[in-house]
């Protein structure tokens, strides 16, 4: 596996997990469309976008909120209660629509400075997170994967379910 990847199965108590899953997979969760997967500069010109719901987005130096915190942040804070961190950089949920063919999205790092990535998988599907060395983390509901943010990684979207849901947490 990539450097120091940790996987936690059945990460949340079932009741808390189902509460988060119900919200993220419901019409109450408001999504915005992002037309690129990893790079704003046009390298992602295959038009395979996705949807995000931002829970928290902080300035990487001051850690002040750059945008209003989601009113649903307390729900996601239940994940944070089980993670050690000093500062939150960003927490957002992603909704990847089904594709006809599985192919890796562009490899990327979320920030170009030392940080930690935590990916919480909301639903089980045949999509996965992949590292440059080819190793994969399957999308298994109620699973949390954490790894060094300097590890280049990418999404590989599912073909078996209508949507793949994850929560991406970037912390220091």
The global form is globular
Please tell me the total number of domains: 1
- Give the SSE order as H and E letters: EHEEHEEEEEEE
CATH superfamily: q2cbj1_9rhob like domain
Oligomer: single chain
CATH class: Mainly Beta
- Rg on CA atoms, Å: 15 Å
Task: Give the number of DSSP strands.
Answer: 10
Indicate the percent of residues in helices.
Answer: 10-25%
Distance between the termini: 21 Å
Proportion of β residues? 25-35%
> Would you give the CATH topology?
Jelly Rolls
Second-tier CATH architecture: Sandwich
Mean pLDDT: 92
Structural class: mainly beta
Strand order of the largest sheet: 1-8-5-10-4-3-2
Write the layout of secondary structure elements.
Elements (H helix, E strand, L loop, with lengths): L5 E3 L5 H11 L7 E3 L15 E8 L15 H8 L7 E10 L18 E6 L6 E4 L4 E3 L4 E6 L4 E4 L6 E9 L1
Antiparallel strand pairs: 1-8, 2-3, 3-4, 4-10, 5-8, 5-10, 6-7, 6-9
């Amino acid at each position: 596996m990539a450097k120091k990847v940790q996987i936690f199965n059945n990460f949340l108590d079932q009741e808390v997990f189902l509460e988060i899953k119900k919200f993220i997979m419901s019409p109450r969760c408001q999504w915005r469309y992002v037309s690129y997967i990893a790079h704003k500069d046009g390298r992602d010109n295959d038009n395979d976008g996705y949807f995000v719901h931002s829970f928290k987005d902080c300035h990487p130096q001051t850690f002040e909120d750059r945008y209003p915190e989601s009113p649903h942040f307390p729900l996601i804070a239940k994940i944070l209660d089980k993670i050690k961190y000093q500062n939150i950089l960003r927490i957002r949920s992603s909704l990847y629509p089904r594709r006809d063919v599985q192919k890796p999205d562009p490899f990327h790092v979320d920030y170009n400075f030392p940080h930690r990535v935590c990916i919480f998988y909301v639903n089980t599907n045949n999509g996965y997170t992949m590292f440059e060395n080819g190793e994969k983390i399957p999308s298994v509901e109620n699973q949390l994967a954490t790894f060094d943010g300097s590890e280049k990684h990418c999404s590989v979207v599912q073909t078996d379910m209508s949507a793949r849901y994850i929560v991406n947490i970037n912390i220091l």
